[in-house]
Specification:
Order of helices and strands: EEHHHHEEEEHH
Strand content: 5-15%
Structural class: alpha+beta
Strand order of the largest sheet: 1-2
Radius of gyration: 25 Å
Helix content: 25-40%
Distance between the termini: 90 Å
Number of strands: 6
Number of domains: 2
Number of helices: 6
Largest sheet: 2 strands, antiparallel
Length: 174
């Protein structure tokens, strides 16, 4: 669904409303900020309208995966995610159009502490069907580090021979 601004109105980003440096999305042809160059790699920042729409919506996913038809009734999109993530990708603030009548789901809980994890918004780890919240992940990492011998955790200093300190050849005197 492409929209054009009323006569005399300046074109605006369909997500944030800004009027400068706009582009059309590849997926749905909507006007959006041409700001993906502002994203800093591995920062996980959500400050780019175009990147957010491309990466965090069903519309962007549907296009990237070359699915046919509309994302709103695509069974490949529907079954491509856990229900909670499917709903989040279809209803979050990075969408031009929201998913109508999203399916219900049970919230995801940490298998250690049973706290609710919002999969689209929070950090978590998953192993099989077990989800772990960020707090429990940190405690598990601390416990793992405490079980690791201290000698394994020490940083090695660079030496001329490339060997670890204290591991040189022994010399017998005498």
């Amino acid at each position: 669904m492409r929209t054009t601004p009323p006569p005399g109105a300046r074109p605006r980003c369909g997500l944030c409303g800004k009027t400068k440096a706009l582009m059309e999305t590849e997926c749905c042809g909507r006007l959006i900020c041409d700001d993906e160059d502002t994203y800093v790699a591995f920062s996980y920042a959500r400050n780019s309208c175009s990147r957010n729409h491309r990466r965090f919506t069903l519309c962007g996913y549907h296009h990237a995966e070359s699915h046919i038809g509309s994302w709103k009734d695509c069974s490949l999109c529907r079954h491509g995610f856990e229900t909670e993530l499917y709903v989040w990708y279809g209803t979050n603030e990075y969408n031009f159009e929201k998913l109508e009548g999203p399916p219900s789901y049970e919230p995801t809980k940490c298998f250690r502490c049973a706290s609710v994890i919002r999969l689209g918004e929070e950090e978590y780890a998953v192993l099989g069907k077990r989800y772990t919240c960020a707090k429990c992940m940190a405690m598990e990492m601390d416990a793992m580090l405490r079980r690791t011998p201290a000698s394994s955790r020490q940083r090695t200093r660079a030496t001329g021979s490339g060997k670890k300190p204290g591991r040189g050849r022994r010399v017998r005197r005498g």
